[in-house]
């Protein structure tokens, strides 16, 4: 199957949808940072996902404010 668009097909474009707030600022910040993936080469995506995963784990492990 040919993956290249033909003349009558438009190439797929990424549509940015707004990130819905989770109510947890640390989590919202991580989710917002994932929007930069579109600007990075594919081989850098793994590092971004690993960093996001680490930050999300820390946010989930943190004690809630009393």
Structure description:
The protein has about 70 residues and is mainly α. It has a domain of about 35 residues. Helix content is about 40%, strand content about 0%. It has two helices and no strands. The longest helix has 17 residues. The mean pLDDT is about 80.
Radius of gyration of CA atoms, rounded to a whole number: 17 Å
Helix content: 25-40%
Average pLDDT reading: 80
- Structural class category: mainly alpha
How many beta-strand elements?
0
DSSP helix count?
A: 2
Poorly predicted spans: none
Strand content: under 5%
Report the sheet with the most strands, covering strand number, pairing sense and barrel closure. Answer: none
User: What is the string of helix and strand elements?
Assistant: HH
From the spread of the alpha carbons, the general shape counts as elongated
Distance between the termini: 57 Å
